[in-house]
Amino acid sequence: MQTVPCKFPVFFMSDSLENALYIVSTPIGNLDDITFRAVSVLKNVDLIGAEDTRHSRILLDHYGIDTRMFSLHDHNEQDKKNYIVDQIRQGHSVALISDAGTPLISDPGYHVASYCRELGIRVIPVPGPSAVISALSASGLPTDKFVFGGFLPVKEKALADELQQLVCEVKTYVYYESPRRILDTVRAIVHVLGAERRLVIAREMTKTFESFYDLNAGEMLAYLEEDANRLKGEFVVMIAGCCKKNDGIPAEALNLLKILNEHLPLKTSAAICAEFFHLSKNELYRQGLEEQSSRGD
Ligand code: SAM
To answer: Residue 271 is part of which domain span?
Structure first.
């Protein structure tokens, strides 16, 4: 039989794995969302470090994986990193998994992965699901540039400070949020970024009650307050970039300029607004004059 040369590199999954640290992504809900390679690696490594071994047992049993597990979580990661390095140096292969999605993405694994790299041990990604990418990919929001902010701060002042940075931001910002905090977070968004800012919230992705809420912040708050069932589950909050109007001046800055100018001279209003939003005073002043003349002042 003639063999056809293949122009793409072909990788075969083999039973023997290189002694290395494998960072393996697992499902974020639907157990079918795991790659063939992830299953193969988890079956063939010598050890699996899991965030919660009882939780991961369900996944491993589902795929008939009986590899030995040990627990690796935020509170023991520093202690366990030497154990992992010793295992790999003795010729074993070790995989890391978290409760859901990709380890290290708002999950344990950073200290181990960076320590292995420091010591010249290979760290091999086995890619798959992650809530941040899943949410963005289906949000309908611009994805050419985005920032992942992990979990938002809980304290009111720190939360407001974080959101304040987004006032003039044009990139899409993505945050993880818990059911306990989702309402307060949306309230803070309305307060700091205004009721008009577009939000997309991805809830319970890949699970029975998967839903995407796509509303402006004011409507989102009312929608969530209306029905307690809408607050259940796991959430990814995506904040659209601000809409720049008129020579790149964000709508929020123009709104503030308008409000200030109802009480103060335009020159002072433009100066305050420029300082607040880090914008050009002259440009704001010019916009203010245009606004006044369009109103016939
Ligand atoms: N490492 C994970 C990843 O790669 O996505 C994230 C772990 S972090 C501790 C858990 C947070 O991810 C949840 O609080 C929620 O914000 C988000 N998340 C995880 N699974 C989700 C899902 N199925 N739907 C919506 N958000 C999810």
So the answer is: 251-295
